[in-house]
């Protein structure tokens, strides 16, 4: 695996797309509050857990045996996943567009006594050699905040043949039902399904999701085989620092989160 430059390298904002620049500014501004609110839950889960309810990787087995694998985490935040993967015998690299998030990652690594290479970059333009990784994954990170038409070919390029691409995020169902005014999903469709791609939020951030057919065609264009699509359902007593009981009740009825598991063709 190529060792990447450290997160101290300065990312030129001019090299970013407009939405990536806006999202970077948001995460630099909100990182302290985000990690203060959610970091303890991410730590309590052991680092390797999926989604807003932190369903353990040991239960879902999306990544498989990570021992000795070169792994790239897109949108690593404070690198809770990457730190846990390193402790499990993997060789992870954490990437984030936000230098504030990477500062939290360096602080957490110092606390844990585990060093993971960090890369300050956008997932839309990975400054990494081709065929560098066995696994590329993202848990509610860069794959939600970056244009999938740019991210998926980048991932295909840096993955080795038969490599895994696994990422989680919101479902089209959730996005169609989400009311920004209440910050809750309801039982009515508020957005069109056809043509769904970029969502421009009132706080100045941008997120991306696609209809299922568009996802599938994008994956196939770039040489991915679909191994699984897991629609996460929280337990009836699940708690989260991200969302409250009302949203959990909604997610018990309809899919709020999903995980795609893809394999790069040989």
Binned strand content = 15-25%
Percent in helix: 25-40%
* Low-pLDDT residue spans: 1-8
Main sheet characteristics: 7 strands, mixed
Counted by DSSP, the helix tally is: 9
CATH-wise, what's the superfamily? Answer: Vaccinia Virus protein VP39
Question: What is the mean pLDDT?
Answer: 95
Q: For the record, what CATH class applies?
A: Alpha Beta
Helix/strand/pairing class, anyone? alpha/beta
Largest sheet: spatial strand order: 5-4-3-6-7-13-12
Assembly of the depicted chains: single chain
- How far the N terminus sits from the C terminus, by CA atoms, comes to 19 Å
Elements, N to C (H/E): HEEHEHEHEEHHEHEEEEHEHE
Describe this entry's structure for a reader.
With 266 residues, this protein is α/β, with parallel strands linked by helices. It has a single domain, classed as Vaccinia Virus protein VP39 (Rossmann fold, 3-Layer(aba) Sandwich), CATH 3.40.50. The chain is 35% helix and 24% strand. It is built from nine helices and 13 strands. A hairpin with a 4-residue loop joins strand 1 and strand 2. The protein is globular.
List keywords for this structure.
266 residues; alpha/beta; two-stranded antiparallel ribbon; 9 helices; 13 strands; 35% helix; disordered N terminus
Which helices and strands, and how do they pair?
Layout: H1 18-44, E1 49-50, E2 55-56, H2 57-60, E3 70-74, H3 80-87, E4 91-96, H4 99-112, E5 118-120, E6 133-139, H5 142-145, H6 148-158, E7 159-170, H7 172-177, E8 178-179, E9 184-185, E10 198-200, E11 206-208, H8 212-221, E12 224-232, H9 245-253, E13 257-264
Parallel strand pairs: 3-4, 3-6, 4-5, 6-7
Antiparallel strand pairs: 1-2, 7-13, 8-9, 10-11, 12-13
Helix pairs in contact: 1-4
